[in-house]
Amino acid sequence: MRLGFSLKLQQTQRLVMTPELRQAFAVLQQPVAELGELIAAQLLENPFLEAEPREAADGDAQGDLGRLLDFLRQGSGYGDDPTPEPAEETSFEAFTPRLPTLTEHLEEQLGLMRLDPAERRIARFLVGCLDEYGYLRVRLEEVAEQLRVPLQQVEAALAVVQSLEPPGVGARSLQECLLIQWASLGDPNPLVPRLIADHLDDLAAGRIPRIAQRLGVTCAEVQAAADAIRTLDPKPGRRFGRPDEARYVVPDVVVERVAGEYVVLVNESPLPRLRVSSQYRDLLDQADGATRRYMEERIQSALWFIKAIEQRRQTLLRVTEAIVRFQRDFFDRGPGYLRPLTLREVAEVVGVHESTVSRATSGKWAQTPQGTFELKYFFSSGVTTERGEGLAADAVKRLIAELIRQEDPAAPLSDQALTDALAARGVRISRRTVAKYRDEMGLPNAGQRRRYG
Prior knowledge:
The protein is of the alpha+beta class. Among the domains are: about 100-230, RNA polymerase sigma-54 factor, core-binding domain (Arc Repressor Mutant, subunit A); about 380-450, Orthogonal Bundle (Arc Repressor Mutant, subunit A), CATH 1.10.10.60. The chain has helices spanning about 20-30, 30-45, 55-60, 65-75, 100-110, 115-130, 140-145, 150-160, 175-185, 190-200, 200-205, 210-215, 220-230, 280-285, 290-325, 330-335, 345-350, 355-360, 395-405, 415-425, 430-440, 445-450, and strands at about 50, 255-260, 260-265, 275, 365-370, 370-375, 380-385, 390. α7 packs across α8 (about 150-160) and α9 (about 175-185) packs antiparallel against α10 (about 190-200). The chain starts with 18 loop residues before the first helix and ends with a helix.
């Protein structure tokens, strides 16, 4: 047997992830707020890419999106009014109220108190050790060692911090936080501190009869004390702002109802208009050699980026239009009529891959007549009613929440009773699914919802 070597030509097809394709995917996935940062980075990197504000390009300070919305709402042209003078550009953040942080709020109170320098220094250190919910996450012994002061001084400074507003800050546990708040109210009910200190787990599990038996009181008394505890805030620091807290979302698309139909507009008003620099393009004819090759590469890169921006706009527009067609009942009648929808259904209508639809909807928001929703909100699994109609999981959850709101507090509906009630409305799902949806909504079980007295 002899072995030999031979050459053979063979044609194969494979997907090659070119730099341009990666850039197109990256552009498609960016929400409008982050896309502006990507454009700014490209403008710094590529001297052949130029930008101008859309207001400057149109000679109108209102911007594309606002003018289109006004036009659609009026149902007519722009009128004969003269073009207004361009207004001074003001950032939206100027009208967004900034909440003080918890640290700022507490240090302001410390500044009004008469404290000796050592006590003020320790109290400010403790304030800096609080987490975003107002809890102290370090041991007092560590603070004393770090500041090289006696433990008694740290304990005294902690008492000062715990006396500040809001009540409960500086606590080292949930029980301590609730006890501080209850003490600040001055309520004489002695049952509340006992429940907080010794029976908080049983109370959370809804084991009210067990607590009543152990304490020798009635279930109604335990229920009344539990209601008082629910008025306390387990996270007193959350009402304050954070430096990196997001105050608002910028919608990527706007869905507007016009003459009984829905019009989809892609929000490009925060983005500048891009173009290839005419000045550098004129210099291309005068260049040669390596300089010319570099300029051609930069021009081609600028054109690819502009094309990727336009492809993002077209894809986002087509995907949103498909969503509007599938979810017409939602836009007409509200969230209770959201139907099941998958990425594949939209992808088949648009003529793209499912991954493209996923990228186009990831992190994007739509402003609709029903409110502002993330585009992913419109995709969910669901069930089929007895009439053969699809009902999204979110709509089923709303039905469960409605049934729970209407139940008798003294005899709440069990998961099986909820299942039977849904079946009476034509929605047949298992008891296990009802329990899963109830847990996802943060609703307690029937035993924990039961009211005594």
